[in-house]
Structure formats: structure tokens, C-alpha cells
Amino acid sequence: MIPIELARNHLRVDGSDDDDWLNAWIPIVSDAVLRWLKEPARAYEQQVDSNGDVVVDSNGDPVPQLDSSGPILKKVVQAAILIELASQYRFRDGKDAGVTPGQGYILCERATSILASLRRPTLG
What CDD domains does the record tag this protein with (predicted)? Predict the structure, then answer.
């Protein structure tokens, strides 16, 4: 979802010494962000027809825009993944890494604040 070069640049990492860590954690963090949204389709830019209406599939789900790499992430989702990746990179020892007693792992506050408008609400 996030190219390793973009992650290296965001983390200000020179060289490839941390590539094994990045290759392991980019998909983990990306998955955590998509799960936090509760509806992964909200993470992607949507196809629109010539009238500007969102294109939906046979199930009524929005069809994501595609490029040569696959579905195109919304910029805010890409930013949240990079922010969360930076948090995990900083706290690689596991301390202060976003664990809430009784809830387990949560995304960092900065990532959730920019994603909040995309999250599917939970109805009580």
C-alpha cells in the first residue's frame, strides 16, 4: 500500500538498513488502519461516472479507482499509515506503543484524528 521509498523518506531513514523492518511493518500498519475504519472501501478513492456519480458494483459497494499498483488510497489514509508507521518505528521496543488496557492495540492519536471523518460509525 505504501511504497518503501515513501516510508523511508517519511521516517528520514537513509539507506536500506531498516528495510526488513519496514517490509514487515508496512502491511501490518496498513491492515490496522483499514480495520480501524471498519469498512475498507472508505480508504480508497472512488470511481465516478461521467455524471459525477459514484460507480458501485453488483453488491452496491463503491468501486475504487485503480492505477498500475491497484486501488488508489485516499491521501488522508496514506498519511495516517505513515503517521502510525512512524509511531511504531519510534517505539520498536514495545513501550508506549499504543496499548490500552482492556482494549489491546490502538492506533496513535494523530492517526485516528485524521481518519475520524472516514470511519464507519458504531451504532449502539
Answer: gp6
DSSP string, 34-49: HHHHSSGGGGBPBPB-
Residue 36 C-alpha from the chain's centroid? 9
Question: What Cα–Cα distance (Å) separates residue 101 from each residue in 85, 89, 104?
Answer: 21, 21, 6
Residue 72: partners with Cβ closer than 8 Å, 6 or more residues away: 44, 45, 64, 65, 66
Domain boundary assignment for the chain? 4-118
For residue 62, give the C-alpha cell: 463503491
Q: Which of 21-35, 38-52, 106-120 has the lowest mean pLDDT?
A: 106-120
Q: What is the pTM of this model?
A: 0.83
